[in-house]
Design brief:
With about 300 residues, the chain is of the alpha/beta class. The protein has two domains: about 110 residues, NAD(P)-binding Rossmann-like Domain (Rossmann fold, 3-Layer(aba) Sandwich); about 180 residues, Rossmann fold (3-Layer(aba) Sandwich), CATH 3.40.50. It has eleven helices and twelve strands. Helix 4 crosses helix 7. The model has no long low-confidence stretch (mean pLDDT about 95).
Length: about 300
Amino acid sequence: MKILIADKFPENWIEVLKDKGYEVNYLPTLGENDIPNNVSDVNVIVVRSTKVNATALTSSSSLKLVVRAGSGYNNIDTKTAAENGIAVANTPGKNAVAVAELAMGLILSLDRKIPSNVSDFNNGTWNKAVYSKAQGLLGKTLGIIGLGNIGKELAVRAAAFGIKVIGFDIVEVNHPNIEYTNDINKVVSEADIISLHLPSNEKTKGMFNDEMFAKMKDGVLFVNTSRPQVVDEDALLKAVEEKNILVGLDVFADEPESKTGTVSSKLQGNPSIYVTHHIGASTAQAQDAVAEETVKVISTLAETGEVIHKVN
């Protein structure tokens, strides 16, 4: 079996694949338009955030499987894959702790304005009078929109800070740290902190728009570590201006595909918005767990013909 890994992947797990007798071509810097030129005889493609488009999927008659080393898979053209008999699989839940940790970190950063503190200090500015006005998290209400693995892990961490957690999902969830409701408006209107953990699909696209932001409390902390498509950025900027919300994002529209370079966004330069580099799943713990599950998906296919975690 020949495998193309077109994203960063732990070296020790590459060696595991090789020890199993698979041929591995490790090209972590490939972009979306590079993949079609490197798949002519490939059986399996492994990616994290790199896009796998229709051209890539139809450039190899040998391709059997695309593995998204992570949970979401909207960077893969699953429809074209299915039409060509190619399975798409993911590794659900394996990076949940890492993303929940970042979401909690963004919440803390927004409340205490940690990045702004550090930036001012490094620029020679002492602003203790400004930064001594945090609300604090004890007794606040966190609204979690999307109660999958990540949302549940965030609830556990929030509870440790003495935060009340209410949560919405289309499927009822029974969790000791979450007061579940099937009314998203209740969550949005009652929460002091809102954290999104949603997939990107037709139902969630632009879900957080002018109407939704209008229901929020003034000064709410708003965090999105899921998908940029679920937030209307123009509506977000309007809410920042009119409702004084503070925003922490790990994802945003038109994010660069490359791992290094320059970046441009309408969100830049706003002191009420903190943006990280789409690093939610980027911890050694998470990547090791994801890689182990990726190897399991590939090995299961090779040994049994079965595709576990198939999404198409």
